[in-house]
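We give the chain.
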Amino acid sequence: MNRLSLGKRGEELALEVALAQGYRLLEANYRCPLGEIDLILEKGETVVFVEVKTRRGETYGEAWEAVTPAKQERIRRVASWYVRERGLAAINFRLDVFTVSLDRGRRYRWFQDAF
């Protein structure tokens, strides 16, 4: 399985879990000049920006470790762009990380309000 299909499987699982928990999908793979966010969800009055990281195992560390401070800053900037672009200045929003490990089934962790 290549990197793109691995990432796609992780994003599909993250979306499946979010929908089961009552979230609504606003955007998948949102792109702007500053970068990309995997999922943008909404639940109640909160818009949630989700970075999904998928790994086959822990050879290169845990998936959440790939969300470095630089990556966090890029996600913040893209989220701000989205908020401005959509005129959503008065909304509540959250930045989450959803990790998937495919080494033994489909284990996941959802870090809400991760940074």
About this structure: Residues 3-20 form the longest helix (18 residues). The mean pLDDT is 91.
